[in-house]
Write a structure and sequence with these properties.
heterotrimer; A: mainly alpha; Helix Hairpins; 5 helices; B: mainly alpha; two-stranded antiparallel ribbon; 19 helices; 72% helix
C-alpha cells in the first residue's frame, strides 16, 4: 500500500519518467530518421518537466517583492529550462537539417535503406 | 692530451659519438668512400674514447653524470663501472673490425641501401654504449629499445617476404617482451625500492620478500628478450636472414650482448648478489639457464645451415652468462663478464667466416663445406680458432671464462651447474669441430660444383683482415684476460664487498 | 592591462565566441582564416597566463556579472582545468595553420567562413566546459561545442559524413540530456548548481537522499561517458572521426573527448568524491573494467582496420581507456597517469591524424593497402607519424611511456598486478597495429598511385613536426606535464573522503 501511496504522491515524477523512457524508446526503436528526432525531442522534454515541477509551488508567484505576496516559486529552474529549450530547439533544427541533407545524398530517410545504399553505391 | 678531458665528458662523448656518426653518414649518401671513412673514423674515435675511459677507471675514477633530470624519480644519466666498461670495450673494438668486414661484404654483394645500413649500424652502436654506460634502469631501457628499433631495418635489409617475416618476429618478440615483462619489472622495482638507479649492493634488499624477488627476477630475465633465454630465443635464429655483418652485430657486438649484459647488471646492481644468494631467489634461474644451455646446444647439433647452427650456439653460450649471474657469487659474475668478452671475440670470428664462405663460394650449409678448407685456408683456420675459443680450450680466451664459471659453480656448491657446464662444452665440440674437420679432411665434392675454381679463393681482403684480427683477438684474450679480471674484481673490492 | 589580467577567465571564452560571430559575417575565406588564426593563437596566451596565476596565487575565481557564487555563475580555474585549458588552446593554436590547405581540399570556398565560425564556436564550448564552475553552465557549453561539432563533422566530403554526424547528434544529445538529468537531480537534492557549493552540500544531503545522489552520479557518468566515448558508449566515434574533414578530426581527437574526460574527473573527484566515500559505490571498479575492455577490444578492432583514419579512431577509443583507467585507479600515480595521458594522447593523436590528413591531401586516399611505400615519398610526414606512433606504443623517450609508467605504477601500488600486465599487453596490441602500418609505409616499394606524392606544404608540415617533437620532448622532460598532473591529482585526491 505504501508503495502506491508513494507513487501517487509523486505522480509528477511518474509522468516525467514515462515521458523520458517513451522518448528514449522511440529514439532506439525507430529506423526513420525524423521519428528518431521526434523521440529525442520528447526525451528532452522530460528534462524540462524534471526541473520545473519541483520549482513550482502551488499558489506561488514570481519572486517579486510585494506585500501582497508571500509565497514565491523558485525562478531558477524556469530560467535554466528556458536555456535548455533553446538548446533543444537548436538541436532539433540541426538534426532536421542533417536529415534533409541525408535525404538529398542518399535518397532516403530510413536507416536500413541508407545502410543498404551505402553498401552498394 | 686526453688527460685534459674530464672523464664525465668522455662518458657523454662515448654515447654521443656514434649518434653523431649516424648523422654524418647520410651526408655522403652518394660517395661510398667518404661514407665508409666516416664509419671507420667514428668507430676508431669511439674505441679511443672507451679506452681512455677504462684507463681512467683503472686509476679508480668512477665518472657519473646526469644528462637530463626528468622528475618522477627518473633521469637520463650515465656512469662507468667495470661490467659496463668491459661491454663498451668489446662493442667498440668489434665495431671497427665489423665495419672493415662490412665494407668488403656489402660491396662484394652489391647490396642496396648501404647508406641506411651504415647509419643504422652507428645508431645501434650508440644505443649499445647507452646500455653499457646507463646509470639507471630508465636510461638502460631507453637505449635498449632504441637498439631494437635501430637494428630492425638491418635485420630486414633484404626486404623480401622472408626478411619481413623475420623482422616482424624480431620486433614483436623483442619489443613485446620488453613492454610486457621488462617494463612492469622496472615499475615494480620502483614501487618496491623507490629507486631504479644502479647501486652497488642492489636497491631491493629488505624491500620485498623472497618470492617477490624471484618473480621479479623472472620478469627481468624473460623480459630482456635480447638475452635469448629459452623460450624467448626464436628471434635469434630467425634474424639470420640478415647480411652477415648484421648477424655479427646481433650475436657478438651489440644485441644479445646488450641483453645478457642487462641481466648481469641488474643482478649485480639492482638485486645485489648478496640478496640473491641469501634468499635463494635465483636458484630457479640456474636450472632455467641450464635447460636453455643444453637444449640450444642439442638443437645446434641438428642444424645443417651454418648460420643457424651458430645462432643456436649463441643461445647456448649466452645461457652461460645468465648461469654465472644466477650463481650469485663474485666469481660467477666475473666469469660472466669474461664470457661476455671471450664469446664476443669467438662468435664474431665464426660469423665472419660463415659470411666469407658465403661471399666467396655462396655456400650456406655445413654439408656443402667438404674440402672448403683447401680453398679458403685462412678463413677455416680462423674458424678453428674461434671454435676452440668458444669450446674453451687453451690457448684461447674462452678458457678463462669457462674456468671462472666452473669454479663459481663449485664454490656455490652447485654440482649440477658444474656438470651442465662440462656437458655443454662437450656438445659445443660436437657442433663446431665437425665443420672444421669436414672442411679440411673431406675431399671436395668435385661433381656438383661447376663454380669451384679449384684453387685458393678467399673472400675480399677486408673480410680476411677482419676475421683474422678477431681470431688473433681470441688468442690475445688468453693472455690479456688477467687485465679484464682485475677490472671485474674491483666490482667486489673492499668498498663494495660483502658485509 | 591590469583589467585584462583580472578578466582573463571570461576573455578565454568570450574572445572565440565573438570571433565566431564575426567569422559568420565574413565573405572571404582568407579573412575568416586570419581571424580564426589570431583568435586561436591568443587562446594559449590567455590559458598560459591563467596557469601562471594559478601556480603563483592559487585557484582563480571569477564571478560573472559580479554576482557572488553560488547565486551567480562562477568561473573557477584551478590547476586541473588550467592544465586542460592550456592543452586545448595550445593544440588548437599549433594545428590552426594547417587548416587552410586541408580545408581547401574538402570544403567549398563559399562555405569556409562558416566552417571557421563553427570551429571557433566549438572552441568556445570546449574552453567553456573546462573553465566554468557551474554545473548547468557546463551543460550549455557542452551543447555549444556539440552542436558545432555535428556541423563540422557533417562538412566532411563523403556523404557518409552526414550519417556519422546525425548519429553523433542523436547519441550526443542523449548524453548531454543524461548529464542534465543528473545535474537536475543534484539540484533537487541540494538546491545549488555551483560545483564547489555542490561538493559542500552533497555531504549533508547524503543521509536522506543517497538514492537520488547515486542516480545523479549514474546519469552523469553515462552522459559524460557518451561524450568521451567510454567503452561501450564509443560507437559514434570511429565513423565521426573517419568521415569528418581531416583537420576537424585532428582538432576533435585532441580536444573534444579530453574536455569530456575533464568534466567526468571534476564531478567524480571534486563534487562526489569530496562529499561521499566513493568506495561505497562500485563506480571505480566499473570504470576500470570498461577501460580494460576498451583498451583491448578497440585495439583489436584497430589491428584489423583497413582505413588509416578509422584505425586511428579505434586507437583513440583504446587510449581513452588508458585515461579512464587511471582515473578509476583512484591513487596518486594512477590519476597522474590518467591526467597526463589526456595531454600526451592529445599531442600524439593530433600528430597522427594530421599526418593522415597530409597523406589524404597528397594522395587522396587513406586506405592502408594503397599506401605502400608512402614513407619514401613523404619522408617527413611519415617520420612524424612514426614518432607519434611510437608514442602510442609507449616506447621510452616518448610521452606514451610517461603515461604508461604512471598507470602501471598506479596498478602495482594498488596491488592489482594482473591489471599492470593488461596495461602493457594492450600496448603490445598497439605495437601490432602501428607496426603493421609502418612496415607497409616504409618497407615496401612505393605503390603506383603514389608517384606524385610529396611532403605537404610547410603550413601543414610544420605543425606536424612540432607535435612530433613535442611527443619526444614531453617524453623526456615531464616537469610541465606529469609535474602539473601530479599536483592536480594530489589536490583532487586530497579533497576526497
Amino acid at each position: 500500500m505504501d508503495f502506491f501511496r508513494t507513487v501517487a504522491d509523486h505522480y509528477n515524477y511518474v509522468i516525467t519518467i514515462f515521458v523520458m523512457v517513451a522518448g528514449l524508446y522511440i529514439v532506439t526503436s525507430r529506423g526513420n530518421l525524423i521519428k528518431k528526432l521526434v523521440g529525442l525531442a520528447i526525451f528532452q522534454t522530460s528534462v524540462y518537466l524534471l526541473y520545473i515541477e519541483p520549482g513550482k509551488i502551488l499558489g506561488g508567484t514570481a519572486p517579486i517583492l510585494h506585500p501582497d505576496f508571500t509565497v514565491y516559486s523558485n525562478p531558477l529552474p524556469h530560467v535554466l529550462i528556458l536555456t535548455a529549450i533553446v538548446v533543444g530547439v537548436a538541436t532539433l533544427a540541426l538534426g532536421l537539417a542533417l536529415v534533409v541533407r541525408i535525404n538529398e545524398a542518399f535518397g532516403s530517410i530510413e536507416e536500413e535503406e541508407i545502410i543498404e545504399k551505402d553498401r552498394a553505391p | 692530451m686526453t688527460e685534459a678531458i674530464a672523464p664525465e665528458t668522455l662518458l657523454l662523448l662515448a654515447v654521443a659519438t656514434p649518434f653523431l656518426g649516424a648523422l654524418a653518414i647520410p651526408l655522403f649518401r652518394n660517395r661510398p668512400n667518404p661514407r665508409e671513412a666516416v664509419t671507420l673514423i667514428t668507430a676508431a674515435a669511439l674505441f679511443l674514447i672507451v679506452l681512455t675511459l677504462l684507463g681512467a677507471m683503472a686509476g679508480g675514477a668512477r665518472p657519473s653524470l646526469t644528462l637530463l633530470s626528468l622528475g618522477a624519480g627518473w633521469s637520463i644519466g650515465f656512469a662507468l663501472e667495470p661490467l659496463g666498461g668491459i661491454f663498451a670495450l668489446v662493442a667498440s673494438s668489434l665495431w671497427i673490425v665489423n665495419s672493415i668486414y662490412s665494407i668488403g661484404y656489402m660491396r662484394a654483394h652489391h647490396e642496396p641501401r648501404q647508406t641506411g645500413f651504415y647509419a643504422c649500424f652507428a645508431i645501434a652502436l650508440g644505443s649499445t654504449m647507452g646500455v653499457a654506460l646507463a646509470r639507471d634502469l630508465f636510461t638502460l631501457f631507453l637505449f635498449y629499445e632504441i637498439l631494437t628499433l635501430s637494428t630492425y631495418p638491418l635485420v630486414t635489409h633484404k626486404r623480401d617476404s622472408e626478411a619481413m617475416r623475420a623482422g616482424r618476429l624480431y620486433l614483436g618478440l623483442l619489443l613485446g617482451t620488453s613492454m610486457l615483462l621488462f617494463l612492469p619489472a622496472i615499475v615494480a622495482t620502483f614501487a618496491f625500492a623507490g629507486s631504479i638507479e644502479f647501486t652497488p649492493g642492489g636497491v631491493l634488499a629488505g624491500r620485498a620478500g623472497p618470492v617477490a624477488i624471484g618473480l621479479l627476477l623472472a620478469l627481468y630475465v624473460f623480459g630482456i628478450g635480447k638475452a635469448a633465454m629459452m623460450p624467448m630465443h626464436f628471434w635469434l635464429p630467425a634474424a639470420m636472414v640478415a647480411p652477415t655483418p648484421v648477424s655479427a652485430l646481433l650475436h657478438a657486438v651489440a644485441v644479445v650482448k646488450a641483453g645478457v649484459f642487462s641481466i648481469v647488471k641488474i643482478v649485480v646492481y639492482i638485486f645485489g648478489i648478496d640478496l640473491l644468494a641469501e634468499s635463494g631467489a635465483s636458484e630457479w634461474l640456474i636450472y632455467a639457464a641450464s635447460v636453455s644451455l643444453i637444449l640450444a646446444s642439442l638443437i645446434a647439433l641438428t642444424r645443417d645451415n651454418l648460420k643457424a647452427r651458430l645462432a643456436y650456439s649463441t643461445v647456448g653460450q649466452l645461457a652461460y652468462l645468465v648461469l654465472g649471474a644466477a650463481l650469485a657469487t663474485p666469481t660467477g659474475i666475473i666469469g660472466s663478464g669474461l664470457q661476455l668478452a671471450t664469446h664476443a671475440a669467438g662468435k664474431i670470428t665464426l660469423f665472419f667466416c660463415a659470411g666469407a664462405i658465403y661471399v666467396a663460394h655462396h655456400k650456406t650449409e655445413v654439408s656443402q663445406l667438404a674440402g672448403i678448407g683447401r680453398r679458403m685456408p685462412v678463413t677455416m683456420v680462423a674458424f678453428l680458432i674461434g671454435s676452440l675459443s668458444i669450446i674453451g680450450l687453451p690457448p684461447f680466451g674462452g678458457v678463462w671464462s669457462k674456468w671462472a664459471l666452473a669454479t663459481a659453480a663449485l664454490d656455490a656448491g652447485s654440482l649440477f651447474a658444474a656438470v651442465v657446464l662440462m656437458v655443454s662444452s662437450m656438445l659445443s665440440v660436437g657442433y663446431l669441430l665437425p665443420v672444421v674437420a669436414r672442411a679440411f679432411f673431406l675431399p671436395a665434392d668435385e661433381r656438383g660444383d661447376p663454380h669451384d675454381p679449384g684453387r685458393i679463393s678467399e673472400a675480399p681482403i677486408s673480410c680476411l683482415v677482419a676475421l683474422s684480427s678477431t681470431a688473433l683477438l681470441c688468442i690475445a684474450l688468453f693472455f690479456g684476460a688477467g687485465e679484464l679480471e682485475r677490472m671485474l674484481e674491483s666490482l667486489f673490492g673492499p668498498s663494495a664487498g660483502a658485509p | 592591462m591590469s583589467a585584462a589580467w583580472l578578466h582573463l577567465p571570461i576573455l578565454q571564452v568570450v574572445l572565440p565566441l565573438f570571433g565566431a560571430i564575426a567569422a559568420a559575417f565574413l565573405k572571404r575565406s582568407a579573412s575568416a582564416f586570419a581571424l580564426a588564426l589570431v583568435v586561436s593563437w591568443l587562446m594559449p596566451v590567455i590559458a598560459g597566463a591563467l596557469l601562471w596565476q594559478v601556480l603563483t596565487g592559487g585557484p582563480v575565481s571569477y564571478h560573472l556579472g559580479g554576482w557572488e557564487p553560488p547565486w551567480g555563475i562562477e568561473y573557477r580555474v584551478d590547476l586541473l582545468n588550467a592544465f586542460v585549458l592550456l592543452l586545448i588552446s595550445a593544440i588548437g593554436a599549433v594545428i590552426m595553420p594547417a587548416a587552410r590547405r586541408s580545408i581547401d581540399l574538402e570544403i567549398e570556398a563559399d562555405r569556409q567562413p562558416r566552417f571557421y565560425c563553427m570551429f571557433l564556436l566549438c572552441l568556445t564550448g570546449l574552453l567553456g566546459i573546462a573553465i566554468t564552475g557551474d554545473a548547468f553552465n557546463a551543460f550549455v557549453f557542452l551543447e555549444i561545442s556539440s552542436l558545432s561539432t555535428y556541423v563540422l563533422i557533417a562538412l566532411g566530403p563523403d556523404r557518409r559524413a552526414l550519417l556519422a554526424a546525425y548519429r553523433y547528434l542523436i547519441v550526443g544529445t542523449i548524453g548531454a540530456t543524461f548529464y542534465v538529468i543528473g545535474v537536475g537531480l543534484l539540484y533537487l537534492v541540494t538546491g545549488t548548481l555551483n560545483m564547489a557549493d555542490l561538493a559542500v552540500r552533497i555531504g549533508p544531503a547524503w543521509e536522506a537522499q543517497s538514492r537520488a545522489i547515486i542516480a545523479a552520479l549514474g546519469f552523469i557518468t553515462v552522459g559524460v561517458g557518451l561524450k568521451l566515448a567510454l567503452f561501450p558508449l564509443h560507437a559514434w566515434l570511429p565513423n565521426a572521426y573517419t568521415y569528418a574533414p581531416s583537420w576537424v578530426t585532428v582538432f576533435l581527437s585532441a580536444s573534444a573527448t579530453k574536455v569530456a574526460i575533464y568534466l567526468l574527473v571534476r564531478f567524480y573527484f571534486s563534487v562526489f568524491g569530496s562529499a561521499v566515500d566513493l568506495d561505497l559505490l562500485p563506480v571505480a571498479t566499473f570504470i576500470v573494467a570498461l577501460s580494460v575492455a576498451a583498451m583491448f577490444l578497440a585495439s583489436i578492432s584497430a589491428v584489423f582496420e583497413p582505413n588509416l583514419k578509422r584505425m586511428l579512431a579505434y586507437s583513440s577509443v583504446a587510449q581513452i581507456g588508458y585515461i579512464t583507467l587511471g582515473i578509476g585507479l583512484q591513487n596518486q600515480a594512477g590519476v597522474t597517469g590518467g591526467l597526463v595521458h589526456i595531454v600526451n594522447h592529445g599531442m600524439m593523436k593530433a600528430a597522427l591524424f594530421l599526418a593522415a590528413g597530409a597523406v589524404l591531401l597528397r594522395v587522396r586516399t587513406v586506405r592502408i593497402a594503397e599506401l605502400a611505400g608512402i614513407g619514401r615519398k613523404m619522408p617527413w610526414t611519415m617520420a612524424a607519424f612514426s614518432v607519434a606512433g611510437l608514442g602510442l606504443i609507449g616506447t621510452p623517450g616518448t610521452t606514451g611511456f610517461v603515461s604508461k609508467w604512471y598507470l602501471v605504477l598506479g596498478a602495482i601500488e594498488r596491488g592489482w598486478w594482473p591489471l599492470a600486465f593488461l596495461i602493457v599487453a594492450s600496448s603490445v596490441i598497439a605495437l601490432v597495429y602501428v607496426g603493421r602500418f609502418l612496415e607497409i609505409a616504409w618497407m615496401r616499394e612505393p605503390a603506383e598511385g603514389l608517384a606524385e606524392a610529396a611532403d605537404p606544404p610547410g603550413s601543414v608540415l610544420l605543425p606536424l613536426l612540432i607535435l612530433a617533437a613535442a611527443t619526444i620532448y614531453f617524453g623526456l622532460d615531464t616537469a610541465l606535464t606529469a609535474g602539473i598532473a601530479g599536483q592536480a591529482a594530489q589536490s583532487l585526491l586530497g579533497g576526497m573522503r
